[in-house]
Amino acid sequence: MKHLSGACTLMVLLAACTSKEPPTVTRTDIERAFDAAEDAAALPVTPVSRIPTGFVTYDGKIGADVTGDSLGSVLADMTMRVDFQDNRIGGRVDNINLIDQNGEPDQRLLGSLEIAGFENNGNLDAGASGQVTAVGTNNNQLDAQMNLDLDGTVRSDRSHGDTVYGGVTGDARGDFNLDVDGVFYGERR
Predict the structure, then answer these.
(1) Residue 122 CB: number of other CB atoms within 10 A?
(2) End-to-end alpha carbon distance in the chain
(3) How far is CA 16 from CA 8, 63, 70, 158, 177, in A?
(4) SS3 per-residue string spanning the chain
(5) Angle, CA 175 vertex, CA 171 and CA 179 arms, to 5°
(6) pLDDT tens, position by position, 107-151
């Protein structure tokens, strides 16, 4: 994370200095998410003839490596709603946790990302964007606009089209800068 120069005066201390939001994930949560992502990646893509109809909600995670002002990774909750009739995707990414290079959860970012995009014959093409807030090394609030691309497919585990999986790339730009590269997965609710 960027270090901002200068000390906080009493007035600035009240307005701009804060403490980190504690992470909401553990090392065990990270390992489970990694295993679930591997499982989803190994599933077969759902044939077009077996794509669900109507509206399906998938709950899962986004896991990604990050570089830039922070090195490590992120793990976030994802809810993706796919309307297979109108070929629209919506949803939300929240509970975004920064994890340091040693795999230790560091802090939870405040804010969430809204998902919007399109589905075509089981192919998913969406974006997720929103403002996130971190706390820097001097306990200063840092804001950035995060924009992610989510490209994936509908897959089949226990039933046809009950899983989504794909790649995530993007960045955060603002008071801190991150480059993001990872995956997303979700299971039918």
Answers:
(1) 22
(2) 36
(3) 8, 30, 20, 49, 19
(4) CCCCCCCCCHHHHHHHECCCCCCCCCHHHHHHHHHHHHHHHHCCECCHHHCCCCEEEEEEEEEEEEEECCCEEEEEEEEEEEECCCCEEEEEEEEEEEECCCCCEEEEEEECEEEEEEEECCEEEEEEEEEEEEECCCCEEEEEEEEEEEEEEEECCCCCCCEEEEEEEEEEEECCCEEEEEEEEEEEC
(5) 20
(6) 999 999 999 999 999 999 999 999 999 999 889 999 999 999 999
What's the mean pLDDT when you consider all of the chain?
92
* Tokens 């120069």 found at: 5
CB neighbour burial string for 145-169, b if at least 16 within 10 angstroms, e if fewer: ebbbbbebbbbbbeebbbbbbbebe
Residue ranges and CATH numbers for the domains of the chain are 22-188 (2.40.160.90)
pLDDT at 7 over 70: no
Q: Which two tokens stand for residue 184?
A: 């997303």
Residue reference for tokens 């995009």: 117
